[in-house]
């Protein structure tokens, strides 16, 4: 899985991204909707920086996660790692795409650890 950040909702950009990463427009829209919804479930009382992620598995499942902070701030768990951990424990091993939603625009890029997943 390669990494790209799509910062536009322009239909031409979305169509190009779908073509490049072999996603249907519905899969892309579902990732977009689910990662935004997951962002609302983030537990981030220290940074107040909400992040949501949604993973599309090769078999078509969507697995969501949100960032979780703890009192040992800045130690916490990124939304992407929460979603991947959940996917792995549910038996998924092959992934097609990841969507990430943040509170800022343009969106924040995944951290180095999450890019290694």
Automatic annotation (TrEMBL):
<dbReference type="GO" id="GO:0072527">
    <property type="term" value="P:pyrimidine-containing compound metabolic process"/>
</dbReference>
<feature type="domain" description="CMP/dCMP-type deaminase">
    <location>
        <begin position="26"/>
        <end position="117"/>
    </location>
</feature>
<dbReference type="GO" id="GO:0005829">
    <property type="term" value="C:cytosol"/>
</dbReference>
<dbReference type="GO" id="GO:0004126">
    <property type="term" value="F:cytidine deaminase activity"/>
</dbReference>
<dbReference type="InterPro" id="IPR002125">
    <property type="entry name" value="CMP_dCMP_dom"/>
</dbReference>
<dbReference type="InterPro" id="IPR016193">
    <property type="entry name" value="Cytidine_deaminase-like"/>
</dbReference>
<protein>
    <submittedName>
        <fullName>Cytidine deaminase</fullName>
    </submittedName>
</protein>
<dbReference type="GO" id="GO:0008270">
    <property type="term" value="F:zinc ion binding"/>
</dbReference>
<comment type="similarity">
    <text>Belongs to the cytidine and deoxycytidylate deaminase family.</text>
</comment>
<dbReference type="GO" id="GO:0055086">
    <property type="term" value="P:nucleobase-containing small molecule metabolic process"/>
</dbReference>
<dbReference type="Pfam" id="PF00383">
    <property type="entry name" value="dCMP_cyt_deam_1"/>
</dbReference>
<dbReference type="InterPro" id="IPR050202">
    <property type="entry name" value="Cyt/Deoxycyt_deaminase"/>
</dbReference>
